[in-house]
Amino acid sequence: MQTAHGNLHLEIQTTRKSPVGILRTSFRDNGKMCHTQHGRITGCSLEQLQLLQLAFRERVVPVDDPQAFRILNSREYGASQAILAIAKQLGLHRILYSRAEPWVSGALAMIVGRLVYAGSKLALCNHHPNTCLWELCGIAETPEVEAHCYEPMDRLLQRQKAIQKALAGRHLRNGHVILYDITSVYFEGEYKDSELVAFGYNRDGKKSREQVVVGLICNDQGCPVGVEVYAGNTKDETTVVDKVHEIKQGYGIETIIFVGDRGMVTRSNINALQDEADLQTIGALTHGEMMTLLKNKVITLDLFDERNIHEVSDPDDPSRRYCLCRNPQTAQRESQTRQRLLDLTTKALGEIAAYKRAATVEKLGARVGKVLAKYKMGKFIQWAIEADPQQETSCAHRLTWSINAEKVEHEKRFDGCYVITSDVDQAQMKTLDVVRAYKSLTFVERAFRNLKTVQLEIRPVYHKSDERIRSHVFLCMLAYYLQWHMEQRLAPLFANDGKGEDRRWTFRGVIDCLSQITRNRVAVNGAEFDRNSTPTPEQAQIVEFLQVTM
After folding, report:
1. What is the sign of the dihedral through the CA atoms of 147, 148, 149 and 155?
2. Where are the strands (E) in 6-159, listed by range?
3. What's 380's DSSP letter?
4. Coil, strand or helix at 127
5. CA geometry: angle at 116 spanning 110 and 117, to 5°?
6. What is the reported pTM?
7. Which of 49, 118, 414, 457 has the most CB atoms at less than 10 Å from its CB?
8. Which of 215, 142, 197, 122 has the alpha carbon at shortest distance from 462?
9. How far apart are CA 329 and CA 339, in angstroms?
């Protein structure tokens, strides 16, 4: 610090146990360097003395000074950068299209944005001031929903078959297991011009809502490779034959083992596909089909074991294998459910029996039928109405009913029992392998759970045209494709996590943690520049697991 008497400065001496600051002025007298000592500063740490030294060198700026260090704004950076880096490592941008066209940047931004923000396309555009996503995808200007979202969605839909064929080429192999299942997505509002949105069997219990049906194809590890949107009134089994032809012809997979649940691999579909070359199936029997095998003495109840899986074949169809399984947890759950429904049924029948107002026999019978249909316990209930011989409409009609304990006990023997059926040769897949392949359908169920609620929130769907609805569902599938690969890399993080209340990490938690890494616009001494925040140890660990750089 230059003063009238010379250069005032702080000299730090560290030769003693504690550092000492010596305040001096240096000046020249007749060409000779001289010093004047003004005092000593003790009791401070070395870091504190170094800070004072900088102040005397006029290299410290007051907090409220216009030239002070300031953060002008902060934008989310970490999550978008990590997911986009993984997308490029996987070559997803080249799968979307071989050339770097503007619509590819918009499509990538929507796919990555689905994992970070979900929400509508307009909301994603409005996030532009708060996130680096659009900039990282190569879109410097303020995004417009029509140009940067809807037009890329239209191009994405045009490329869907080619993209899915490329994904299938990566993740499906001849003779490997292919998982297939469908779900429903319900809609709000009116869709009068849509051929897709219609009433049908809703798997979410939303009976009063129109819907579409979504079919998903995955490999044996649960990696999604294809998705299709069907009309809301489409039945499960009607999608299977076309989907098998698509896999074999459209994806170029000649030999497949198709795995579907009991609503997919039905007897009619098996018959329809029996002439299809190099196709084998794995599915499960319905309760009625199990009863038929039991009646024909192909299977017996004592073969269902909690510890061992017994395999039998039908003498009339030796190529068809039946793997008999029993799950004790499912057995307990089914028994409890049946008892709860029986209790509700008996309570409702008791209320009807205690009805005091005059009614006809037909009215009482209709009320009983409504109760039995609601709880589906009719096969266990024996009931009758003793009519009043004197009056048709009377309070004296008497309802009598009882539970058929023998039928209940007989039904209990089937609790937790299920039969997995397949025509895969035993030399190719052992009994346990067939059962494992069928249980792999839980991967598809998990994908649907993430698509619909947990992470990607496929609904509400803000699009009205069928083409945009299809494109939106396809975009969500591509986002789950990235999520699946991220979860494979994060497996050690989740494996070492706590249980129950001690659980720390979910996929959503990982995204939120990475989102805290920000890109900050900083102003210092009149200069402005961007600076990323330093990752915390947790964030650094996640980045290392994901094999990306910030």
Report:
1. positive
2. 6-13, 20-29, 32-41, 70-76
3. G
4. coil
5. 75
6. 0.81
7. 49
8. 122
9. 16
Question: What average pLDDT does the segment 441-455 reach?
Answer: 86
Percentage of residues in the chain having pLDDT higher than 90:
49
- Residue type, position 472, single letter: H
Cis check: omega of the bond before 492, within 30 degrees of 0: no
- Secondary structure string (H, E, C) spanning 135-150: HHCCCCCCCCHHHHHH
* Matching residue, tokens 């994904």: 167
The two structure tokens encoding residue 519: 């890109």
- Looking up tokens 């001496």 gives 13
Give the whole-angstrom CA distance, residue 269 versus residue 236: 11
CB 296 within 8 A of CB 285: no
* Interior angle at CA 23, CA 18 and CA 29, nearest 5: 135
For residue 365, give both structure tokens: 């019978």
- Per-residue tokens: 402: 């009882």
* Whole-number pLDDT of residue 398: 87
Tokens in use for 211? 């819907």
Task: Give the whole-angstrom CA distance, residue 178 versus residue 253.
Answer: 10
The amino acid sitting at 160 is Q
pLDDT tier at 246, thresholds 50, 70, 90: confident
> Which pLDDT value is given to residue 64?
67
Please name which of 385, 355, 354 lies closest in space to residue 369, comparing C-alpha atoms: 385
Structural element, H or E, at residue 417: strand 417-422
| Encoded tokens for 531 | 């600076």
